Amino acid sequence: MREKYIVGNWKMNHKQEDISKFFEVFSKTTVGKNCHAWVAPQAIHLPFVLELSNKKCNGKLLVGGQNCCYEKSGAYTGEISPEALKDIGATFVIIGHSERRAIYKEQNSELCKKSSAALSCGLQVIFCVGETLEERESGKTEKVIAQQIIEGIKPLDKKSLQNIIIAYEPVWAIGTGKTATPSQAEDVHKFIRTLWEKEGLPNAHDLIILYGGSVKPANIGELMAQKNIDGALVGGASLKGEDFSALTIAN
Fold this sequence. Notes:
This protein has one domain (4-12, 36-53, 80-249): Aldolase class I (TIM Barrel, Alpha-Beta Barrel), CATH 3.20.20.70. Helix content is 38%, strand content 16%. The protein has helices at residues 16-26, 46-56, 82-88, 98-103, 108-120, 133-137, 141-152, 182-198, 220-224, 241-249; strands at 4-9, 35-40, 61-65, 92-95, 124-129, 164-168, 208-211, 231-234. The protein has an 8-stranded parallel β-sheet with strand order 7-6-5-4-3-2-1-8. Helix 1 (16-26) packs parallel to helix 2 and helix 1 runs parallel beside helix 10.
C-alpha cells in the first residue's frame, strides 16, 4: 500500500489561541499507519507551531512554510528565506499555490527559481499546479498543467527531483465547496505521472501527487482510493484539530 500525505495549508488564518486548541485535539490522534501529517502555518507562527509539535506530537506532525524567496538571503524586505526556514526546523515549503499565482502574479519561471533555492537548502517542495474553470471548460487542462510542470520543474537539477511533490489543485475547487469528482482528479493525476515520464523526469512511479480542492472528511476516502492520488493538500478542513485528525485517521 502506497503511503499517503495529508498536508494542511493554514493560509492566513489562526492566532496562537487557535493553534493551541488545534494541538489539544491533534496531539491525542493516532495517525493512520501509512499516513504522513504535515502543516504549513503563517510564517510568523512557525516557531510556535514547531514548539508545540515537538512537545505534544513527538514528531508525528511535520511543519513547513507556505512560500519562500528565490534567494537564500539578502536585501529582500518582507520575504522569507528558504535557508532560514530550514534553519528554524521547517522540512518543506509550498511553492506556486494558485493564490500566489493569481493574486501575486507569480510566473512559472519565478516558481522554478524558488523551488531551486528551497531544494538547495534541503527543503522538500510541494509544487502546485492546476487549471481555472475557464481553462477546464475550454479543454485546456492538460495543456496548462504540462506548461506549469515543463517550465516550473523540468529545468531543475534532476537529482533534486526526488524531493519534489506535485499538488494538483483545480482552481475552481479551492474554497468554493466544489470538488473534482474522484475520477476527474484521478484522470489529471494519471496525466501528471505520464507526463513526468514522457519528459524524462526520474522516478515517475514514485512521484508523490497530492489533490487539493475542498478536501474534507466526507470525501477524503473516495479521493484517496484512486490509484494515482497519494494524499491531499487541505485548506479549510485543516484548521480545526477535529477535522484534520479525521483526515489523517482515515488513511
